[in-house]
C-alpha cells in the first residue's frame, strides 16, 4: 500500500510544515522552484555545516507519483485523470513532509547527523545537481573506489 495516496492535506500545509522544520534546525535562504506548468517541484535551502554554507534541494517527483497512481485506476471516468494529477501533488509533498519529520526526529534523538541523512540532497548550484544525481551519473563509481 502506498503511503499518503489518499492524502487530503493541502500542498501548502505540507510545504509550510517542511519549511518550519527546516528553519527550526538552521535552514536559511529557503527557495521554491516551479516547473514549466507552475507546479512546485522542489524546495531549496542552505544550512551552515562545519564552517560552510551547504545548499540542499528536496524534490517532490509529482510526475512519477502521478504515473503510479494512474496505473492503479481500473475504470476511469470523466475527470478521473485530472483528479489524480492533483492527488499526486498532495501525495508527493505529504511524503516529503513525512520524510523530513522522520529525518529531523533522527537528528533530535542523536541517531544521525544532519549531513548524514540529507547528504543525497546536497545541491551544487553551479552544475545544478544533487550529490545523489552526481554519483548516479558516474554509475556510482565514486562509491566503489
Fold and architecture overview:
The structure is a single chain. With 145 residues, the protein is an alpha+beta fold. Helices cover 48% and strands 20% of the residues. It has 6 helices and 5 strands; from the N terminus they run αβββαααββαα. The strands form 2 sheets. A 3-stranded antiparallel sheet has the order 1-2-3, with helices on one face. Strands 4-5 form a two-stranded antiparallel ribbon. Strand 2 (40-49) and strand 3 (52-59) form a beta hairpin. It is globular. The model has no long low-confidence stretch (mean pLDDT 94).
The count of DSSP E runs of length 2 or more, i.e. the number of strands, is 5
Distance between the termini: 37 Å
- List low-pLDDT spans: none
Morphology call: globular
Radius of gyration: 17 Å
Mean pLDDT: 94
Largest sheet: 3 strands, antiparallel
Q: Helical segment tally?
A: 6
Name the beta content range.
15-25%
Q: Structural class per helix/strand content?
A: alpha+beta
List the helices and strands in order.
HEEEHHHEEHH
The total tally of domains equals: 1
Strand order of the largest sheet: 1-2-3
Percent range of helical residues: 40-55%
